[in-house]
């Protein structure tokens, strides 16, 4: 079955999905995006993702491309048409098509919307989580508004490529004070020797991760102690455990940093506990091929 994409009001074959050459996302990275996990036939944490989309659009003075409820139904429909049971559903909103000029286009210019979905290999993901992954550290050279989930991701792209070239799965970014901010596409966590989970506050300097928020809820249900504060690379290397969270990696153990093992170099029990508890804590929207399905 060929993949299907939603592009500005139409469901089209993925291979034929196109946007205009003067779409402001293409010209200026003038757009925002969200990625939701699909697990076991459910879209995970859709409400939180749409809440964050609303904030990103507001911060960039950008209009919703369609109503919020309509967008939620489109996400279900695209996921269903692509028969995705385990995978990702991606949505991107740009300021639309206009003559190339830095200021915003005239009022009334419609924003543009693209939604796609794809399956991922759940078995390969589980095998990776069982072994853990390596990360490297890089200077954080992004703009200050990393709290907006913009499609302007070139520093993140370069950091991820540097990680891949080093044989690692992710790059953790380090600020001017030597503190870990977040990964190129993940939030960063450690577990101290006193068994306290530590992750940087999401008020500034990092993206307010949706998976991060659900992981915090799962930790509370498990009775785990949590501190929202910064931590250094040295503290991470001396930690009992480290892991990262995102819609694409869920809760992924980190077993080495810059080539040095974290603890014994194997995934720790806290990350395993959170991984087992995550699905129960998350919001789940059933797909199942119908636009009328409600929350389960």
Automatic annotation (TrEMBL):
Its cofactor is pyridoxal 5'-phosphate. GO terms for biological process: amino acid biosynthetic process; branched-chain amino acid biosynthetic process. Signal peptide: none annotated. Pathway: Amino-acid biosynthesis; L-leucine biosynthesis; L-leucine from 3-methyl-2-oxobutanoate: step 4/4; Amino-acid biosynthesis; L-isoleucine biosynthesis; L-isoleucine from 2-oxobutanoate: step 4/4; Amino-acid biosynthesis; L-valine biosynthesis; L-valine from pyruvate: step 4/4. One of its GO terms (molecular function) is L-valine-2-oxoglutarate transaminase activity. It comes from the Bacteria. GO terms for cellular component: cytosol. Gene3D superfamilies: 3.30.470.10, D-amino Acid Aminotransferase, subunit A, domain 2. It catalyses: L-isoleucine + 2-oxoglutarate = (S)-3-methyl-2-oxopentanoate + L-glutamate; L-leucine + 2-oxoglutarate = 4-methyl-2-oxopentanoate + L-glutamate; L-valine + 2-oxoglutarate = 3-methyl-2-oxobutanoate + L-glutamate. Keywords: Amino-acid biosynthesis, Aminotransferase, Branched-chain amino acid biosynthesis, Pyridoxal phosphate, Transferase. SUPFAM superfamilies: D-aminoacid aminotransferase-like PLP-dependent enzymes. It is an enzyme of class 2 (transferase). It holds the Pfam family Aminotran_4. Its EC number is 2.6.1.42. Belongs to the class-IV pyridoxal-phosphate-dependent aminotransferase family. Acts on leucine, isoleucine and valine. This is Probable branched-chain-amino-acid aminotransferase. It comes from Oceaniradius stylonematis.
């Amino acid at each position: 079955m060929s993949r299907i994409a939603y592009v500005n009001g139409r469901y089209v074959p993925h291979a034929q999905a196109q946007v205009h050459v003067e779409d402001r996302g293409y010209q200026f990275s003038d757009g925002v995006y969200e990625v939701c996990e699909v697990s076991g036939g459910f879209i995970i944490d859709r409400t939180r993702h749409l809440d964050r989309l609303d904030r990103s659009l507001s911060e960039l003075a950008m209009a919703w491309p369609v109503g919020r409820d309509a967008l939620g139904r489109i996400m279900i429909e695209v996921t269903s048409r692509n028969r995705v049971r385990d995978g990702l559903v991606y949505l991107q909103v740009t300021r639309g098509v206009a003559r190339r000029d830095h200021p915003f286009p005239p009022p009334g210019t419609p924003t543009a919307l693209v939604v796609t979905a794809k399956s991922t290999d759940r078995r390969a993901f589980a095998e990776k989580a069982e072994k853990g992954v390596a990360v490297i550290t890089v200077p954080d050279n992004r703009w200050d508004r990393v709290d907006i989930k913009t499609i302007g991701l070139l520093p993140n792209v370069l950091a991820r490529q540097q990680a891949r070239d080093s044989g690692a799965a992710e790059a953790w970014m380090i600020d001017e004070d030597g503190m870990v901010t977040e990964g190129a596409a993940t939030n960063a966590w450690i577990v101290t020797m006193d068994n306290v989970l530590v992750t940087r506050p999401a008020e500034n300097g990092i993206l307010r991760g949706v998976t991060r928020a659900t992981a915090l809820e799962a930790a509370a249900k498990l009775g785990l102690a949590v501190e929202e504060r910064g931590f250094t690379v040295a503290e991470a290397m001396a930690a009992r455990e480290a892991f990262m969270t995102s819609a694409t990696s869920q809760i992924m153990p980190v077993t080495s940093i810059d080539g040095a093992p974290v603890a014994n170099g194997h995934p720790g029990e806290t990350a395993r506990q959170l991984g087992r508890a995550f699905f129960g804590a998350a919001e789940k929207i059933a797909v199942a091929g119908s636009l009328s399905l409600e929350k389960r």
